[in-house]
Write a structure and sequence with these properties.
This protein is of the alpha/beta class. Helix content is about 45%, strand content about 10%. The protein folds into 2 domains: about 1-10 and about 15-40 and about 110-245, HAD superfamily/HAD-like (Rossmann fold); about 40-110. The chain is built from 11 helices and 6 strands. It has a 6-stranded parallel sheet with strand order 3-2-1-4-5-6. It starts with a helix and ends with a helix. It holds the Pfam family Hydrolase.
Length: about 250
């Protein structure tokens, strides 16, 4: 999978950008899975069942395998890596079945927004900081998650960027470049901030020249710093983060 290969590539050597506090902060761009909500455990369970049923794994899925081969990737890349002998059409069908299973699991769970997220969104709104979701999740998943989290009011269709609907998905910068465009700040990525929990996603945001904050929901601080995150925090209620944002 390209995301996993990129995540294990050489450390980023460019200097970490500095987050601009409000009122100079113009936009905040949010990854969804694992960043705005801890949905990775549900993906983990669905992939565990799939990989064992189809013979890719004989033992239970490990978190290390999940982080290195699945987390943050697009379905096209994930399934091409896991099932190299199958066709693109078969990959697509398997991905659709997997995502349907995820949405069924989502409907049974009481998924909650990450700590401090709603307060940060309200603070951004009050200060005129534009917000957008940038995700590799399929549109049906993203819309279902935002609805269940009670966050749809913050993110209409124009504020939801789906990676697979862009020319290239994460870890390429295209989804974040589209997010900047929709916020009207394509000329000032350095005046924005992105939030990511995976190396693939962080690489995409950093490649778009956006100062990027790593959310430590599954990856280590060392891993996210290595791919260019200028700050790593446990959640959106972090005093260090709020001070940096001027919130």
């Amino acid at each position: 999978m390209r995301e996993a290969d990129d995540a294990r590539a050489a450390p980023t050597t460019r200097s970490a950008p500095v987050i601009r506090p409000a009122p100079r902060l113009r936009a905040a761009l949010f990854d969804l899975d694992g960043t705005m909500a801890d949905s990775d455990p549900m993906h983990f369970v669905v992939f565990d069942e799939l990989l064992r049923r189809t013979g890719v794994l004989r033992a239970p899925l490990t978190h290390e395998y999940f982080k290195e081969n699945i987390a943050g990737g697009s379905n096209a890349d994930i399934f091409a890596r896991l099932y190299p002998d199958k066709s693109a059409e078969e990959h697509e069908a398997m991905a659709e079945a997997k995502e349907a299973s995820f949405r069924e699991a989502l409907a049974r769970e009481a998924l909650q927004p990450a700590k401090g997220l709603r307060a940060l969104l309200d603070a951004c709104d009050a200060r005129g900081v534009k917000t957008v979701v940038v995700t590799n999740a399929p549109r049906a998943n993203a819309e279902a998650m935002l609805t269940q989290l009670g966050l749809r009011e913050y993110f209409g269709d124009e504020r939801l960027v789906i990676g697979t609907e862009c020319a290239r998905s994460k870890p390429n910068p295209d989804p974040y470049l589209e997010g900047l465009r929709r916020c009207g700040v394509s000329d000032a990525p350095e005046a924005c901030v992105a939030f990511e929990d995976s190396p693939a996603g962080a690489r995409a945001a950093v490649a778009a020249n956006i100062p990027t904050v790593g959310i430590l929901s599954s990856q280590s601080e060392e891993t996210l710093a290595r791919v260019g995150c200028c700050m790593c925090v446990d959640d959106f209620a972090s005093p260090v983060l709020l001070e940096a944002l001027g919130m």
